[in-house]
Amino acid sequence: MATNDENQQRQDELIETAGAVLLKNYLQQPTVMARGQGVELFDVSGKRFLDMTAGISVCALGHAHPELSARIAEQAGKLLHTSNLYFIEEQILAAKAITDRSFADRVYFCNSGAEANEAALKLARRYQHVVKGAPNRNLIVSTEGSFHGRSIATVAITGQEKYRKGFGPLLEDVAMVPYGDLGAARTVLEKREACCFILEPIQAEGGIIVPPAGYLQGLRDLCDATDTILIFDEVQTGVGRTGKLWGHEWDGVVPDVMSMAKALGGGVPIGAIGASEKAAEGLTFREGGAVPHASTFGGNPLACSAASTVLRVIEEQGLLANALHVGEHIEKRFNELVQKYPETLLESRGRGLLRGLAMKTLAGPTYRRCREEGLLVSVAGGTVLRFAPALIATTDNVDEAITILETVLAND
Ligand SMILES: Cc1ncc(COP(=O)(O)O)c(C=O)c1O
């Protein structure tokens, strides 16, 4: 058995090597995670962390969930990859699991959130150009404060300047409207120049912004009236994060297309779009043409076996009800903190287990101090501390997290 000092030395060496070999694009915390169990993570030095981030809304079932681990191991021993030259059993079953649980009639699989949004944008353009015969409907409407990914197209439709800077010239034909402002959406959509309107049912990276009541329905009506494809980016809000399987269920409004990723594989990389029968025509193969969209790894047996398992376990273990219950507890505890620290804290926001504690200052220092004290949280929109634990988290886990957070706030 290695001693504590040896483990610490190993971690320090790894971080030093990282400094030499990794491209320095990230701003990483000085720790290397070695293993996880439920909502706990342990780094190479042996330090324990209480994880309220779930890998940025990814590890829906927590770390090392026995059913997910076993299913992935089984699949890895059977078949990892074949390509989409052939049908894939696990892909068909994962698509069925999604269509059985959502508005979607058809599913396309890829590998990440940005890729899912790319597929949704391509679907919308081709739907207008090829299916509807409207080659001038190019405009993509997106919302200020949004986050849709880091590819060259998805940074262009991300409504935060800091992600776009330095990457121009960007995709043209993008209009940004304020999130929650139906009047602004109407003005742009009524021109009938847009192929699609894309938005998050709750803006996550932008600072956990819940839209005003009636906004999604208003957009649905506008998109219907103007034959614009309505895309919900459910990459962060989907797969149970908000206490409903899909974030849009809170508003009882369905899109034409939704993008998914993050929690869908419970930690195995996978992305997807779900589309109505009508919208799916936008990416349907036409005889004599090229395959309109594809991905080498998209929908591979390993990732799809994980997705089916995640969706099944969420249902069988009542994790949506748990997310609602534990989410309400976070809200209550956040509100108590807001009352107690009015100079530092502004308000509590969010739904289910996508929760934000808005601060009156930048949240970075608190986030770093929490990690030093053994609590993992993340920052959204610069000033908001985000709690997005696994859907298996308990109220006791939340209470432990709040105790650590309060120690940090009290000493600031
Ligand atoms: C709403 C939303 N869309 C898209 C993405 C991009 O996903 P990925 O990092 O898997 O490309 C994210 C990532 O945080 C997201 O929150």
Short description:
The chain has helices spanning 4-21, 54-57, 66-76, 89-100, 113-131, 152-156, 161-164, 182-189, 215-226, 277-280, 301-316, 319-340, 364-372, 395-411; strands at 33-37, 40-43, 48-51, 106-110, 139-143, 174-177, 194-199, 229-233, 257-260, 271-275, 345-351, 354-359, 375-376, 378-380, 384-387. With 412 residues, it is α/β, with parallel strands linked by helices.
Structure description:
The chain is built from 14 helices and 15 strands. It has helices spanning 4-21, 54-57, 66-76, 89-100, 113-131, 152-156, 161-164, 182-189, 215-226, 277-280, 301-316, 319-340, 364-372, 395-411; strands at residues 33-37, 40-43, 48-51, 106-110, 139-143, 174-177, 194-199, 229-233, 257-260, 271-275, 345-351, 354-359, 375-376, 378-380, 384-387. The protein is globular. The model has no long low-confidence stretch (mean pLDDT 97). It has 2 domains: 4-52 and 318-411, Aspartate Aminotransferase, domain 1 (Alpha-Beta Complex); 68-316, Aspartate Aminotransferase, domain 2 (3-Layer(aba) Sandwich), CATH 3.40.640.10. A 7-stranded mixed β-sheet has the order 4-10-9-8-7-5-6, with helices on both faces. Helix 12 (319-340) packs parallel to helix 14. 39% of the residues lie in helices and 17% in strands. A hairpin with a 2-residue loop joins strand 1 and strand 2 (40-43). It has 412 residues and is α/β, with parallel strands linked by helices. The chain binds pyridoxal-5'-phosphate. The site of pyridoxal-5'-phosphate (PLP) has 14 residues, from helix 5. Pyridoxal-5'-phosphate binds next to helix 5.
